[in-house]
């Protein structure tokens, strides 16, 4: 088993990232046997599609590394690195640009969502973003890719690219990666709008719970979260058509390891005035130890750089054979 996943080091790690992806990364790492390997990386080459100054980018990469370690990624057991330090990602991306079709990329919903109406003004990087993501995955022959729901289409594209490359060059080079998407927390929604996913790029900080939020901020955000005036239903099916209520119950269920039905049964007939403080408490208790560890780790840049240096060396060594084989299959090596 080869587990691989990435996160863009832009802004803070938020609850959506944690419950949708990172918690699963840690579980898979902790359940790994001696035959398996985990690769987790900061997608800083992807993040150039968002403009940022030099200093901010350097800080953000170190902060996200600290956040992942604080959340439970162990850089001795897992290979933790930033993409820019392993040039094989950019190289394989270029080779795969010969395989990926414009029509495939035109169908990517994330691209459409991100560019909105200004398609002509979007960067080429944003358009080919999913090809770099395919390279990230195929380079390591990843078999399992733990991600949130929003990455599913990119995973399907990676499989299409792998299949076409293997067929075009008559070689069984790339392994088919399978997305690992959690059942309950695949899509954590904004606290302000139950129809939008919780995201780093939402201009309202009240829409998300950040790993860096202190206990008071978490309680405040939960208290102010949008809900409806109805009480909680007896069963989760009573949450249909109530996206905000559904989201909060889903978060509570995920954090406590229970089903949404069990949570509803506990709070049935009570209003959100009673439910929110309980949810806030669970969030505070879950996030506090991660935040405290994060704040400690981010004070030691040298230690974070050492982790990323070592990770980049291990990743580059693992990526090299696949990259060479791809060049060779294409007749680019003599
Ligand atoms: P990114 O940085 O947007 O998000 C990192 C991970 O968090 C998940 N996620 C969520 N899950 C549930 N609810 C939410 N509201 C939510 N918001 C984010 C994402 O699904 C993701 O798993 N393109 C990727 C990074 C990437 C990558 C890769 C991932 C680059 N190369 C190769 C896997 C394999 C991204 O922008 O994730």
TrEMBL record:
InterPro entries: aa-tRNA-synth_I_CS, aa-tRNA-synth_Ic, Rossmann-like_a/b/a_fold, Trp-tRNA-ligase, Trp-tRNA-ligase_bac-type, Trp-tRNA_synthetase. The keyword Cell inner membrane does not apply. It comes from the Bacteria. PROSITE patterns: AA_TRNA_LIGASE_I. It catalyses: tRNA(Trp) + L-tryptophan + ATP = L-tryptophyl-tRNA(Trp) + AMP + diphosphate + H(+). ATP binds at residues 8-10, 16-17, 148-150, 188, 197-201. Its EC number is 6.1.1.2. CDD domains: TrpRS_core. Pfam families: tRNA-synt_1b (PF00579). Belongs to the class-I aminoacyl-tRNA synthetase family. Homodimer. Catalyzes the attachment of tryptophan to tRNA(Trp). PANTHER family: TRYPTOPHAN--TRNA LIGASE, MITOCHONDRIAL. This is Tryptophan--tRNA ligase. The lineage of its organism: Bacteria, Pseudomonadati, Pseudomonadota, Alphaproteobacteria, Sphingomonadales. The gene is trpS.
